[in-house]
Design goal:
By secondary structure, the chain is mainly beta. It has two domains: 172 residues, Immunoglobulin-like; 88 residues, Immunoglobulin-like, CATH 2.60.40. It contains two helices and 20 strands. The strands form four sheets. Strands 4, 5, 7, 8, 10 and 11 form a six-stranded antiparallel sheet that branches. It has a five-stranded antiparallel sheet with strand order 1-2-3-9-6. α1 packs antiparallel against α2. This is Thiol:disulfide interchange protein DsbD N-terminal domain-containing protein.
Amino acid sequence: MANTKKAALALSLFLATLPAHAASSDWFETEGGRIRLVTTGSPAADGTLRAALQIDVAPGWKTYWRDPGDAGVPPQITFPPASGITTAEIGFPVPQRFDDGASHWAGYEWPISLALTLHAAPAKAMQSLEADVFLGLCQKICVPVQAQLTVDSTRNADDLFDRATVSAAFDSLPAEASPSFGVTSTRVEDDTLIVETTAPARENLTLFLASKGGFEFGEPKHEEGSTRFSVPLLAQPKDAAAPTSIAYTLSNGDTAVDGAFTLP
């Protein structure tokens, strides 16, 4: 995982020095870093468009993963109806865990690119693409960042560097969980969630959970010599109408997977 982070950081820093191209927005500069939207140009025939949200975090600053803890701001991106984008899926690289003395949370302290899979109506003519972005950048205090990014998708749609940026974002994502690497079962014991996993190696296992549906999680504790985690349940719904899908990332240092399980 260390080599992956170094490679992603080197590529991100290299691409950040290049001028904006037509398939990308201008950089939005703010305290603690800058952000921009990069695409591969026009949607495919089925309406799918791959893109990346570049977050160029300044030295000493951090930004959040999909679950920012009890006080953070997760990266969010929305598209107005006029854009033609119907849904947007965000893929996150493996984060690291931070302890600021008051809370534990997951995020990044290096430049990253979030992989975006956008869906538009098939054969939708898209001359420009506007996106509203909201995220947090933190040093000693956290700064909420809100920006509107605009891409002209009709010019230079096959730009080499834009495509490389988007490809790098997708290459940085964890693999899909499998029977040999992922969560195998879960159970609740009092105020603790027990998560059983399987992995190629038991050392350096780290689990990240995304709170949802009234569930709030403390820091997962890896039980030494096993592939089991104990997770404090800080909150859970009293009257859940249906099972809740919980997204997770499981890392063993060099490799990682994304998956989901249901609670209760």
